[in-house]
Amino acid sequence: MKQLFTGRNDMEAHFVKGLLEQEGITAILQGEALEGAWADLPLSDRALPSIWVDEADLERAQPIIDDYRQREMKTANQPDDADESTGPTWKCPKCGEEVDEQFDVCWNCETEKPGLAAG
To answer: What is residue 6's three-state secondary structure?
Structure first.
C-alpha cells in the first residue's frame, strides 16, 4: 500500500476515496478517527486523514487525484461573488429568466425550453 493523498478533513478524504472507488480503485482511509482529538493542536500531515491505494493502482489513481487538486485550486482562486454557472444558458420565452443549458424546463415558471420535440 502507498499513501496517495492527505485530506484537510474527514469529509474531503471520504470524497476523494469515493472518486477513486468510482473508477474501481480500492482505497483505504487512515487517520479518520484522529479528527476528534485535534482541537487547537498544531497538526502535521501524519495526523490528517490519508488515502492509501495498492501500488498496482497508483498509475490509474494519480491522474484522478491530480484532476481533483486542479479543480480545487480553480475553485479556491475564484472570487466569492463569481457566478456559479459557467456553462451556456437559454432564456425563458415566458418570464425571461436565464436557465442553465442542461435543464429542459424553466426553474421559475416551468415553461419548457424552446425547440424541444414534443414527447
So the answer is: strand
Q: Scanning the structure block, which residue is given the C-alpha cell 501524519?
A: 46
Cross-strand bridge partners of residue 2: 53
Residues (pLDDT < 70) of the chain are 33-46, 78-87, 117-119
The pLDDT of residue 88 is: 83
Task: For residue 112, give the DSSP letter.
Answer: B
Q: Which helix (H) or strand (E) segment is 53 a member of? A: strand 50-53
So what's the pLDDT on residue 87?
67
**pLDDT attached to residue 48:** 85
d(Cα 95, Cα 4) in Å, to the nearest integer?
49
pLDDT at 92: 92
On whether the CB atoms of residues 60 and 22 are closer than 8 A, the answer is no
List CB contacts of 2: < 8 A, sequence separation 6 or more. 52, 53, 54, 55, 58
Alpha carbon distance 46, 54 (integer Å): 19
